[in-house]
Amino acid sequence: MNTRTVISAFVLLLMPAASFGASVGVELDHVRIDPTNTASLQRGARTFVNYCLGCHTADYQRYNRIAQDVGLTDEQVVENLVFTTDDAGERTKVGSLMFNNMSKDYGKQAFGASPPNLALTARSRGTDWLYTYLRTFYLDPSRPVGVNNKVFAGASMPHVLWELQGWQKPVYETQTDAHGHEAEVMVGFELVTKGKQTPEEYDRTVADLVNFMAYMADPIKVVRHRVGMWVMLFLIVFLVVAYQLKKEYWRDIVK
Ligand code: HEC
User: Fold this and answer.
1) Separation of CA 143 and ligand 1 centre (Å)
2) Residues 6+ away with beta carbon under 8 Å from 78
3) Nearest alpha carbon to residue 212 among 20, 50, 7
4) 155 CA distance to ligand 1 middle (Å)
5) What is the mean pLDDT of each run of 10 residues along the chain (255 residues)?
6) Of 73, 139, 155, 223, whose CA is between 20 and 30 Å from 242?
7) Residue 22, pLDDT score
């Protein structure tokens, strides 16, 4: 392999990350994700099943797996998080995947786009994108559902958390770009109807929800890190043993 091949391979490896960064365009707000904060995950799970699971599924994820990972018993999960029914009309079992009762066709008819599975969205879109998306729905009478979104312009999802956040309208400012063109730029939002939560409380609710969605997109992250630490520790101890052995084997040959 010559140097050029190595460099091309390296550039190719970096490309997906680069193009992902470029596709964002809008400035995103940062959210801190902590998969070990089980209280936050529990709050996020509650918001998710109450406000999202009606339209979206997350059917790579099982309810009892959540119980195990966020420190709840199966009974607590059934009581607080399982609100759907199965085909026989009985409450969904705790070992089931998190599906919902809305068909894809109905979703498409009702909203123009069917609500996608959200199990892996924290990975496909990124957590900062989700955090910004869920906080930047704004009133826009030209849209079928009356709202638009800062990071997902033209999204057909209604602002389902309006009860908590309230309604906000965009604030525009006229700015001149480097070529001297004037343009209206969205610089922020103004709350026109208050919600049940203050802006700070709402940010925390969304941060917990995004934390839960990040957990769902990578449920064994905490376990993987823990096992990884033990593996590293083993390798370090093994290095000492292997080095001593090597010294012993070569003692009579290399003086
Ligand atoms: C009333 C139905 C409905 C509810 C409830 C709902 N959504 Fe949506 N959602 C939609 C629809 C429809 C789309 C598709 C939008 C499009 O493609 O234009 C969507 C799209 C999304 C997307 C974009 C996915 C992608 O990668 O394109 C995310 C993220 C999302 N929803 C998160 C949520 C979260 C989190 C909740 C709960 C707080 C929620 N949704 C509740 C209808 C809903």
Assistant:
1) 15
2) 63, 91, 94
3) 50
4) 8
5) 71 58 71 96 96 93 94 94 89 92 87 93 97 97 94 95 97 89 91 97 98 96 96 98 95 80
6) 223
7) 41
